[in-house]
């Protein structure tokens, strides 16, 4: 999944699903306390990092409408370069496949992959803890992708425990309408007192007993979420679809008995403007072995 050729590194940058999301409290500083299960999936962006002698960071395929100061891969490269006082530069090419604004962690994953890749390309030899601390400056989910394994997540997202999950396939749909996360977490009707569970409790719980506490709010402020959930329920009866994170993407765990041809037809016949894919769960980030000897 990764390829090192002289001064070039090509990496796959995976998305994630929140298999459930419970909000169990709120800190005095306003941050919400949550519990969730983060599942890596094989819906990936591709990042190519090429070492250059010029002391600069070049992004050869910038995202439309995103300024360099707001671009997470540029910010990640700049952060690492300044932290380690690197005198050489890098050319970054990002092939974007994960939809922007879908709530699948694509931007955070790209930032993490950039940190991991440049740590190897520049031979900086930083450990994962140091990279996670740097990544947290870029976004709350970035350390998860550096951690690189499916995880039971607590706190404000910084407490992660490795979780071994059965490999499963999912149908993931983005109804082409993003939801600002701040709108969800500022909503007065958001559940903030969900009873806490343990990782063992999650693994033993029936799917129907778990939930996403953001989903009800998201459905109210973004009708497309409800439409996508209903679409999956009608297309795959009994699948119990759920929103991922703060949305707006929704997903369903797929019964392995469903014919692949049927699933491909479903994806090809999504409502106009929607994006969807049948994906497989990953056990580790494809870039994991660049920073770990596990």
Question: How would you summarize what this structure contains?
Answer:
This protein has 294 residues and is α+β, with helices and mostly antiparallel strands. Helix content is 29%, strand content 27%.
Explain the overall architecture:
The protein has a single domain, classed as Ribosomal Protein S5, domain 2, CATH 3.30.230.10. Helices cover 29% and strands 27% of the residues. The N terminus is likely disordered.
Task: Give descriptors for this structure.
single chain; 294 residues; alpha+beta; Ribosomal Protein S5, domain 2; seven-stranded mixed β-sheet; four-stranded antiparallel β-sheet; 11 strands
Give me the secondary-structure topology.
Elements: E1 2-5, E2 8-26, E3 32-52, E4 57-59, H1 72-84, E5 89-95, H2 106-121, H3 128-136, H4 142-147, E6 151-154, E7 159-162, E8 169-174, H5 181-186, H6 199-204, H7 215-221, H8 223-235, E9 242-243, E10 250-253, H9 260-268, E11 275-280
Parallel strand pairs: 4-5
Antiparallel strand pairs: 1-2, 2-3, 3-5, 3-6, 6-7, 8-10, 8-11, 9-10
